[in-house]
Structures are given as C-alpha cells and as structure tokens.
Amino acid sequence: MTEPDRDPYLIASLRKGLEVIDCFAARDSWSLTELAGHLGLNKATAFRILHTLQDAGYLAKDEESGRFRLGMKFYSLGKSAVRHEQLKWQALPPLLHLAESTGETVYVGILYEGDAVCVQIVDGTELVRMHSFVGKRSPAHASALGKALLAHLPDSEVDAYVATYGLKRLTASTITDPARFREELRQIRAQGFAFDAEEMAPGLRCIGAPVTDHTGRPFATVSLSAPADRMTPERVAALVPQVRSAALDISRLLGSPSLPRRAAAT
User: Fold this and answer.
1) Domain residue limits at 44
2) Which residues contact 52 (CB under 8 A, 6 or more apart)?
3) What is the pLDDT of residues 111-137, one digit of tens each?
4) At which of 52, 70, 88 does a domain end?
C-alpha cells in the first residue's frame, strides 16, 4: 500500500544512498553487515549502494578488512565548497570599495559547467545600472567574467571547452570563430584583464580581472558591468586598474602568493 503523504518526486534509491553516506558522519568506517543492519537494508541492496559509491569515488574499501570509509571525492568536494564560501565573503570588502569608488555594479564569479556563475555581487550607486543576482549563469565565452578565466586555462582545456559548449552567438558582437576566440584569450592573458564589448547583451560592457587562490592559480574573476554609453575608451582605461586592484586584494585575502599566471599548455 502506498503511503498517502509520500513525496512523488523523491528518488528512493538515491535517498537510500544518501542515508548510507550520512552514516559516515557517526562512524569512520562500516562493514557491509554493520551498515545493512543499522539501516534495516538487506545485504544485497546495501552492497549495491556501497559498490556504486565506491565506483564513483565517494567511498573507499579496505580490501583486507572489507570496511568502507569516505573516499577522496568528498575531500575534493569539501575543499571546493570551503574555497567558494571563503571567496564569497573575503571578496565582499574589496567589492564594496570598488562599487563605491566607481558607482558601478561589481561581481565575483567562477566557471562551472561552461558558464560564468556569479557568487557575490554589490550593486552600484548609479541611477541606471546593471542588475544581477547570486547564482546567475552566463555563457563564459561571451562574458568578461568567463573570458578572464578561460584565458588562463591550458590550450587543451580551451579546445575542450569550445568542442563541448561551442561559441554560441548572443549578439552581433559575440566572438564565434574559434581561431579569433583563441586570439582573444591570448590577448587577455597578456594584458591581464578581459573586456566584454556588448558580446553578452546589447548595451552592456564589462571588465574582468582574475582572482588567484593560495597556489597562485586563477580560479575566480572580479567583474564590473555598466551601460555601454558610460564605458567609453577613456573611462575603461581608468576603470581597468581599479578592477585589477580589487582582484589582487581578494587574491591576497585568500592567501595567493603571486599575480595570475597561465597554466602550462598541455
């Protein structure tokens, strides 16, 4: 008989897998028998769940004892979560200063699944200004935020990005030719900042500069956006040092030892 209040959108097998994972918060290691008994699962079901999690890297099995422990996948995910949460809050003081000194809306974002994703934002004080929100995703190839990070990837990863996500035309100014796009990234890498000349949306121009982590590797971008009529060549030239300074301040707060450096080509 079906439970009357059961959520029809829950995936039962996934829920069981998450219950297995939760067990490792209470104990470092579990045997198949212990885990099956603790959760009231039959051994065949428990084995399939443990084997799936092990195959995906979320659990590791000691072949001598047969006991399961958390795998390295959780370690890498935990590091990533901490780093992005740290970025969100460490970025706030430099972003506040940048927004106050320029009057424009400023962001910090990362690359995720081919998109530039905003993780922190401070609105400007100008009456007419750009509006966005934390979590907003934009195609990386057409944004200063995304291009500033793509420029510091190895050539092989840039090629993989183009092959996987393409260079979709969003406006008449979007760079869609792969050869021209690679040249654009080389120029960004050389000059230390990216510029979006209405490539994402008509009437919008943006400046982006990379933020580096504790290893000195670019992993985020500070970006400033404004209506095109306020982003004259003279004003862009004045704003670039301020955006780069904010990126450097955030990098230092995150323990970065150096200015952005390009990863070795592979």
Assistant:
1) 12-70
2) 17
3) 888 899 898 999 887 766 566 777 888
4) 70
